[in-house]
Please model this.
Amino acid sequence: MPRGAHLTNIASGLCGSFASRNNELDGYWSIGQLRSLAERRGESTVILDLLTSTIHPSSPEFAPVLVRYRHLLAKLADLSCIRLEGITTARITLDFAPPPWPRIRYYKPQWGDQFTLTVTINADSRAAGIVHHAGYCRSHDPARESRSARSAGY
Model:
């Protein structure tokens, strides 16, 4: 049976990668695009289920992100000697309306509103790995953002 520490390591790797500015879709930061999706749908959270390759609220445009993080989940599980079939939950949750935390006022115009990111990994309903991240982002706006020239196949 997988140990909780191994699952936390997997969750940490997914969380760090997902929060990174290298997490992009069509050259733009995925988290900003996911905030835009949540706003368009009147939702405050977005949930990506890596095992079923689904996203709520549903949006086919994020399929490449789901595929990329499903592959990363499989790679991290393999490195931790955990069978992917033994993982029962692999979920990334973005909350764009978290409880407020203290911050300096000038960050909002520059970096946007706060969000939290939670990655949950369960295996065999007994061990759990949960990692949290907090940050700031604005809704996706191509007029204000620089598009990455990196190829999408990284």
DSSP finds four helices and seven strands in the chain.
